[in-house]
Amino acid sequence: MTQQDPLIIAGTQYSSRLLVGTGKYKDFQQTREAIEQSGAEIVTVAIRRTNIGQNANEPSLLEFLPPSNFTMLPNTAGCYTADDAVRTLRLARELLDGHKLVKLEVLGDPQTLFPNMPETLAAAKTLVAEGFDVMVYCTDDPIQCRMLEDIGCVAVMPLASLIGSGMGILNPWNLKLIIDQARVPVLVDAGVGTASDAAIAMELGCDGVLMNTAIAGAQNPVLMASAMKKAVQAGREAFLAGRVPRKTYQGAPSSPTSGLITPSKPA
Predict the structure, then answer these.
(1) Does residue 76 have a known ligand-binding role?
(2) Taking the model in full, what pTM does it have?
(3) Does 191 carry a binding-site annotation?
(4) Which of 63, 125, 197, 209 is the most buried (most CB within 10 A)?
């Protein structure tokens, strides 16, 4: 979409509603090419896995995705406790010269990568109190999303399905409950597998979609990035346009039924 329909997070406007991760690509060059094709302005960086300056003798992601061109969203991928997550984002703030916008995720186990919500809530409280703008990966539980919002998180990011699963949106009903009550942006995070999944998320009314594996794991990541850009745009436009009502067991002709030409009777 254009600046006439911006995504606003923590008071900043973004023209793209697609947020993209930077992991799992074959190299930083492919990362750059895919993200350019996606049109994403916000890119997530796993501080524990990606060099953004903490390893001086290794190539830095920031050489390929300069912060002057992209908004970095440091995340806590690989953290399993609130303390680890808070320490990781404090480090990110130092490396990125006081950067405030962060993505919090605290995982429950290494098999499902499902959120550990008690630890997530604890970390969110600490980070908000320390002045971070916290976007938070969470379950699709409307009550816990409300709790995160009440703490002061700037966006809630319920999973569509398990991280990296590509299973798409498994519970659209819960997502709709979260969207309908939220006063902050709601972005689907995790589980998107292909372009139609992204479009469905946007048609439900999500404010944006965050993905990594769906692009980086595709056979042609750069082409998939382009497809995801179009899907998010189409889904947003469809949501704004308003779909026709569903009419179970009732047909509705698409052309007028009045003024039809009546065949003449045979003589």
Answers:
(1) no
(2) 0.87
(3) yes
(4) 209
Using CA atoms, how far apart are residues 163 and 121, in angstroms rounded to an integer?
Answer: 19
In the block, tokens 């039809």 appear at 260
What letters, b where the CB count within 10 A reaches 16 and e where it falls short, cover 226-247? bbbbebbbbbbeebeeeeeeee
Is 99 within a domain?
Answer: yes
- Average pLDDT rounded to a whole number, residues 92-112: 91
Q: Does 103 participate in catalysis according to the annotation?
A: yes
How far from the centroid of its chain's Cα atoms is residue 169's Cα?
A: 13
Residue 254 lies in a domain: no
Please give the pLDDT value at position 134: 98
Three-class SS of residue 118?
Answer: helix
- Count of domains observed in the chain: 1
The rounded distance, in Å, linking the Cα atoms of 217 and 1 is 26
Q: What is the pLDDT of residues 177-201, one digit of tens each?
A: 999 999 999 999 999 999 999 999 9
Distance CA 36, CA 123 (A): 32
Q: Is residue 251 part of a domain?
A: no
**Is residue 260 included in any domain, yes or no?**
no
Write the CB contacts of 167 (distance below 8 Å, at least 6 apart in sequence): 160, 161, 191, 193
Q: Binding residue per annotation — 190? A: yes
CATH classification of the domain holding 57: 3.20.20.70
CA 258, 263, 265, 267 dihedral sign is positive
Catalytic residue chosen out of the listed positions 26, 103, 229, 230: 103
Smallest Cα–Cα separation from 96: which of 120, 132, 57?
132
Domain that holds residue 153: 19-241
Residues 231-239, mean pLDDT to the nearest whole number: 97
3-state helix/strand/coil string of 195-233: HHHHHHHHHHCCCEEEECHHHHCCCCHHHHHHHHHHHHH
Read off the amino acid at residue 31.
Answer: T
